[in-house]
Amino acid sequence: MPGRPLSVQLYSVRGAVADDLQGSLQRLADIGFTNVELYGFVDKADQYAAALEATGLSAPSAHAPVLQYDDPAPAFEAAKRLGVGTLIDPHHPREQWTTADDVQRAAELMNRAAERASQAGLAFGYHNHWWELENRVDGTPALEVLAAELSPEVVLEVDTFWASVGGVDAPDLLRRLGDRVQLIHVKDGPISRDTRTQLPAGQGEVDVPAVLAAAPRAMRVLEFDDYDGDPFDGLAASFAWVSEHDR
Question: How far apart are CA 218 and CA 225, in angstroms?
Fold first, then answer.
């Protein structure tokens, strides 16, 4: 079993989840997962609650487009009902990371979201893609510029694969961001924007051992954006590899 927290983003098996939520969660539990990261749960809290209870899985984190909501209260309420502790916005548009003013506005949105989430008893965080790293402000990756403008309450979930695609050394990035990084997405493959080429951890070009070592206290969340094969098989391979190598 893994020595550190290990979870899985349900988006990895979104087709199966759409067809059979409880059955999909049971397959993940059978692999050995005890935690999952939710998505698309706000309007399906009843179904998710039943499936989590039936399979014995916990959902310490979840994704929802909080920054797009006029009123995030329903998302906060659904997250609390499902036992989520950290609600993460998974996407802020690529075109809104090009200037210092863009990043400042993003930080203001996230700071307000974190304040409201805190009032609801939740932590709020942000998950990156490649453009927050590739886009630079005075030579510094926009994600790092953002981090300097965030209130202490905002956490980061660093997608280490997309950070690599964005042109930064992911372990160095994690060390620079420090304890603000409370979760990491762990995935592998050729360092490419083509999600169809993603592979289980340890089979691609990402230095996954260095990534894990650089964020020893972060929740590990395994994920595929896409997978050429049965994603449950791929996740089982990732689970086994990370369990063995995350020391």
Answer: 20
Is residue 1 one of the residues assigned to a domain?
A: no
Q: pTM for the complete prediction? A: 0.96
Contact 173, 197 (CB under 8 A): no
Q: Which residue has the tokens 């990035």?
A: 173
pLDDT tens digits along 95-142: 999 999 999 999 999 999 999 999 999 999 999 999 999 999 999 999
Angstrom CA distances, 114 to 11, 121, 158, 223, 226, stand at 24, 10, 17, 25, 30
Residue 156 forms part of a structural domain: yes
The reported pLDDT for the residue numbered 2 is 43
How many distinct structural domains can be found in the chain? 1
Cβ atoms of residues 167 and 135 within 8 Å: no
Alpha-carbon distances, residue 234 vs 78, 176, 188 (angstroms) = 30, 30, 11
Structure tokens at 211: 């990534």
The CATH number that applies at residue 170 is: 3.20.20.150
Q: How far is CA 71 from the centre of its chain?
A: 22
